[in-house]
Input
Amino acid sequence: MKPFTYAYATDATAAVTAASGGAAPATRSPVQFLGGGTTLLDLMKLDVMQPTQLVDITRITDASMRSVETTAQGLRIGALATMRQVADHPTVRRDYPVVSEALWLAASPQIRNMARVGGNVLQRTRCAYFRDPSWPCNKREPGSGCPALEGQNRWHAVLGASEQCIASYPGDWAIALVALDASVQTLAASGPRTIRFADLHRPPGTTPHIETSLAPGELITGFTIPAGPHTRRSLYLKVRDRESYEFALASAAVAMELRGDTVTAVRIGIGGPVAVPWRAREAEAELTGKPLTEASALAAARVAFGGAQAREHNAFRIPLGQQTLVRALLQAQSMELKS
Ligand SMILES: Cc1cc2nc3c(=O)[nH]c(=O)nc-3n(C[C@H](O)[C@H](O)[C@H](O)COP(=O)(O)OP(=O)(O)OC[C@H]3O[C@@H](n4cnc5c(N)ncnc54)[C@H](O)[C@@H]3O)c2cc1C
Ligand code: SF4
Output
């Protein structure tokens, strides 16, 4: 681990002031905010991230950054709420089950108690080449190459990847957020702004080292999820190598409205072999207005993975992802809404 300076802030404005001046893209910025530290400190110990300054944001007292509030308009979640706090919130569990489940199925109890939802959406890829600086990696060192293209790529993306990087986005909660049309509130030296969650993560393209649309020193302050009749009939299904403490091989976040068995509205997020949190809009269009059956769900799942591109070891994740989505849709259809 390289030497760094440490500062802490007790309000959001002070945190942004302390972090201002970074000139690089946010993920490579010399100044990093410290939340629970469960991604950042691991990567610093591995010398993958080498910030020169940490700004500890866990002592910020702004209530809006720590609270979870539900209103008729929707859900507002402060970026410093812990994963457990959001997952366990009774109204979230009842009215937004997909939000709660995506957090419950992530990581371990210890990590969920420690990690904040702001840091959660900014977790980095688990690509083994990225996490080992003895390998070249376009994401870590732009232009150095991508050994995963011809190497071990079981964990890599089939949707949204590029010739420069096929890393997958590993998080669960972001899949629920992208499905539910969430937005992100931020604070930068230039002031506050709101961005669509779908625009937060950037596909790798030719610049895989630029992972988000955040500017250096821009603080995520919270998230909003609009209310709607679809959010109660929603769930997150995660398929993994073992039933606990493991990242998704495939996952699906679905939320829907039904009239009888006919789908009147549906929202679909895909996780696992995706370069960024993936919204399957074509699959939604395929299903809307049709009776939900195994056959129509499979047709939608095929559309969802229509543009998938597999490598040597990850082709199995296309049918797995399709079947995961089919199961998620059928389970959402038969779920009993909590009162
Ligand atoms: C063994 C293990 C297993 C895991 N399994 C899963 C899993 O199955 N599913 C899953 O989804 N996740 C999993 N995770 C990832 C875990 O959920 C994340 O590490 C955690 O949510 C990150 O939150 P944090 O508060 O610790 O972030 P930190 O590590 O503190 O920060 C992460 C990054 O976000 C930046 N940051 C933090 N907060 C803000 C903010 N408010 N504004 C701007 N930038 C900010 C930091 O500067 C840093 O770059 C796992 C992690 C581990 C170690
Ligand atoms: S897939 Fe991306 S993160 Fe992994 S080695 Fe290639 S460039 Fe690096």
Summary: Residues 317-334 form the longest helix (18 residues). The chain has a mean pLDDT of 96. The pocket of iron/sulfur cluster (ligand 2) is lined by residues 125, 127, 129-130, 137-139, 146-148, 156, 165-167, 208 (CB under 6 Å). The CA atoms of residues 6 and 54 lie 5 Å apart.
